[in-house]
TrEMBL record:
The keyword Transport applies. It comes from Clostridium fessum. GO terms for molecular function: ATP binding; ATP hydrolysis activity. The keyword ATP-binding applies. Belongs to the ABC transporter superfamily. This is ATP-binding protein.
């Protein structure tokens, strides 16, 4: 279980996040929507341990996670909107670089694990710079999940992808949640928003639950 309490963050005199609190249980997909620049990426990067909040608490299965990088790495897989791949290296070399485990574990992952499920095994010899947007995203997700994390955090996973790639990512998100994982994502995509079990709106630094009965299309139109 992920419990976020009272997260606040200021940047250059501006309050980006104000007392952000929510809970995410196993088997849930939590969606956060909001306008560009509202603080969604800042919030996700704090949850992943990339940035520090000015105050607040992040507890995972009852344990305080802020400042405990080993716990965050073990429990959370974070896929930013911009992929971290090195374009000159092949997909295989990028996977080996980011994979959290031994070589044999990586090979097994490509044979029957998340790497195989996401189809990474089909383009291993291709330079990362020549991969499609969907292939880069799948490779980034597979590498992030190599640590067998319980919580998957995705920042705009379907952004700039074609319809087929969006559906492939969405299919994996659903299977991850069905298997008992927790997903937290930001999105402007109707399909991804529709797959969420709980939705929040982040506006003026405040995170609030969405109105009952509000459709994914209506949410997108508001932002």
């Amino acid at each position: 279980m992920l419990e976020v309490t009272g997260i606040e963050k200021r940047y250059r005199g501006r309050t980006i996040l104000k007392n952000v609190s929510f809970r995410a249980n196993p088997g849930e997909c939590i969606g956060i929507v909001g306008g560009n620049g509202c603080g969604k990426t800042t919030l996700l990067s704090i949850l992943a341990g990339i940035r520090k909040p000015d105050r607040g608490s992040i507890r995972i299965d009852g344990q305080e996670a802020l400042g405990r990088h080993r716990l965050l790495e073990e429990k959370i897989a974070y896929v930013p909107q911009e992929n971290p791949l090195i374009p000159e290296l092949t997909a295989f070399d990028n996977y080996r670089l980011w994979f959290r485990g031994k070589r044999r574990e990586m090979e097994r992952d490509l044979e029957c694990g998340v790497g195989r499920v996401l189809g990474v095994d089909r383009f291993l010899k291709t330079q990362a710079g020549r991969l499609s947007g969907g292939e880069k995203k799948r490779l980034s997700i597979a590498a992030a999940l190599s640590g067998r994390a319980d919580i998957l955090i995705l920042d705009e996973p379907g952004a700039a992808l074609d319809l087929e790639a969006k559906e492939q990512i969405l299919t994996y998100i659903r299977s991850y949640v069905k298997a008992g994982g927790t997903v937290l994502l930001t999105s402007h995509e109707m399909g991804e928003i529709g797959a969420c079990t709980t939705l929040y709106v982040l506006k003026d630094g405040v995170l609030v639950p969405t109105e009952a009965g509000l459709s994914a299309r209506e949410l997108i139109q508001r932002f």
